[in-house]
Design brief:
Blueprint lengths: L1 H5 L2 E2 L8 E2 L4 H14 L3 H4 L10 H19 L5 H17 L6 H13 L7 E3 L6 E3 L12 H21 L2
Antiparallel strand pairs: 1-2, 3-4
Helix pairs in contact: 4-5, 4-6, 5-6
This protein binds zinc ion (ZN).
């Protein structure tokens, strides 16, 4: 859940093309429903609702802290200051949450599970879109968040480059 929330910013690394899905309030409201269908932790949360309106800015700060901390951890740049920022954002978000079934509280609890995940090397950054994802494959060899989307796109652009090189005089 915490990674799905962090990934609500698409192409985060690309200043010109990045899209923040939560800029649209309707997307933020619709997110719990999508998470209920697709999120790996869906069985833990049951019916969740959007974050309390008064807690939105805390929730969005938590989202950014999630991305900064885990992106650094995946890159091998573990930094306790980022962890402190994350835990503080987490505490503010939990304090402002309206009960346990809000997206804000659910995300905070998901963060705690991710911090303590037993095999942190399974967390990766998609080499196509830059999303954080957990590689659950047996041989831990996944390079893309989603084979059907990013895997195919990466393969297509590699194929295209190869063709171009072959055609070049
Ligand atoms: Zn991807």
């Amino acid at each position: 859940m915490a990674l799905d929330v962090a990934n609500s910013v698409v192409l985060r690394h690309d200043e010109a093309r990045r899209i923040d899905r939560f800029d649209a309030p309707a997307q933020l409201e619709a997110f719990p429903q999508a998470a209920a269908a697709f999120c790996a932790e869906r069985a833990l949360f049951g019916d969740i609702i959007g974050p309390a309106p008064s807690n939105r800015s805390n929730f969005l700060e938590l989202r950014e802290a999630i991305d900064r901390y885990f992106r650094a951890r995946v890159s091998g740049e573990i930094d306790d200051r980022l962890l402190v920022d994350l835990l503080e954002a987490l505490a503010r978000t939990l304090r402002g949450a309206n009960g346990e079934n809000g997206l804000d509280a659910a995300t905070a609890h998901s963060v705690l599970r991710l911090i303590a995940m037993p095999d942190p090397e399974r967390m990766k950054i998609c080499s196509n879109c830059g999303w954080l994802f957990i590689d659950r494959s047996k041989n831990r060899s996944r390079a893309w968040c989603d084979m059907a989307v990013c895997g195919n796109r990466a393969k297509a652009s590699r194929h295209y480059r190869r063709r171009k090189e072959e055609e070049a005089p």
